[in-house]
Amino acid sequence: MVSITTGIDIVEVKRFRDIPYDDENYFYKKNFNSKEIEYCLKFKDPYPHFAGKFAVKESFQKASRKLIPMIEIHTNHGDLGEPILTCKKIKCKKIEISISHEKSYSVATTTIIW
After folding, report:
1. What string of H, E and C letters represents the secondary structure of the chain?
2. What is the widest separation between alpha-carbon atoms in the chain?
3. How much of the chain exceeds pLDDT 90, in percent?
4. Cα–Cα–Cα angle for 28, 63, 98, rounded to 5 degrees
5. What is the CATH number of the domain that holds 103?
């Protein structure tokens, strides 16, 4: 039997602007791996991207119904730029995510097919 769960999260970009990134900032190291940080920093304004990645990790936790440390949830991008999420902490058939950025907010959804 197939089961489907979903999660959604919205993050105010200002929360990330209020915590400026630097190499020693524990907040970023606790929540993002080095590839995620590198991806966000390649943009002139990295904070909507940090907020989007944070939102998708939160939406994944809601969909998985497990409190998984953010650093163990990995985001990446496919050949067409589509967002991809992986996490070794759960066993499922498929994970679909979507991330959107707006000037002040980033929002993300996760659907997990079990």
Report:
1. CCCEEEEEEEEECHHHHCCCCCCCCHHHHHHCCHHHHHHHHCCCCCHHHHHHHHHHHHHHHHHHCCCCCHHHCEEEECCCCCEEEECCCCCCCEEEEEEEECCCEEEEEEEEEC
2. 47
3. 96
4. 65
5. 3.90.470.20
Question: What one-letter code names the amino acid at 96?
Answer: E
Domain count, the chain: 1
Residue-number span of the structural domain to which 17 is assigned: 4-113
Share of the chain above pLDDT 70, in %: 100
Instruction: Categorize the per-residue pLDDT at 62 as very low, low, confident or very high, splitting at 50, 70 and 90.
Output: very high
